[in-house]
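Thread title: Can someone regenerate the structure for this chain?

I was given the following input by a collaborator and told the matching C-alpha cells would be attached. They weren't. Posting the sequence so someone can regenerate them.
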Amino acid sequence: RKVLLPERAEALLRILDADGALAGMMATPFIAKEICQQHHRQELVPRCISDVFERMIMQVAERRTHELCDSWDEIPPVVRQLILELGAFAHKMLENRRLVFSHAQIQSHSISKEAISLGLLVACDTSPTDTSKQWRFSHLTMQENLAAKYQAHRKEMTDGRLIR
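Best answer:
Regenerated them for you:
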C-alpha cells in the first residue's frame, strides 16, 4: 500500500489551486475523495467532472474483470452491457425526476443482479419503520453520467456514428 507523501499531496494541492474548476469539484467530499484516490493511484488529475466518473466506471470494470481498462472500448462487452443497463435505468429515473427508487422499480426495469452488484447503486438509509429498501446511484453526477453514456450509445446505434 502506497503512502501519500507530503510532496505529492502538496503537488496535488498546487494543481488544484491553479484550476478553479477542479478546486470547485473538491468542495464535494465524495468527488474530492475520488480525485485524491485517482491522483494517488495514477498521478492523474481529471480535467473535468466527467473524467472523475469515467475513471470510476473504469475501476468498476477492472474490479469485475480483474483486468486494466483504460477506455470504454477496453471494457469487455458483457460488462459494458451491464453498465449500459444501469445507464438506461438512470436515464429513465432522471426523466421521471427520481433520484431515489424502490426495489420494485428496479425489478420493473429488469435490472439484473449482476448490474446491481457493480456497486453503482447503493441502498439508502431508511427509517426503522420502513420495510421497503430504497436505492439511489452512488452520486447524482454518476446517475447523470450513466444516463449520458446510455444516450450516446443509443445515438451511436441509431446513427451508426461513434460518439464519446
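The CA atoms of residues 8 and 43 lie 9 Å apart.
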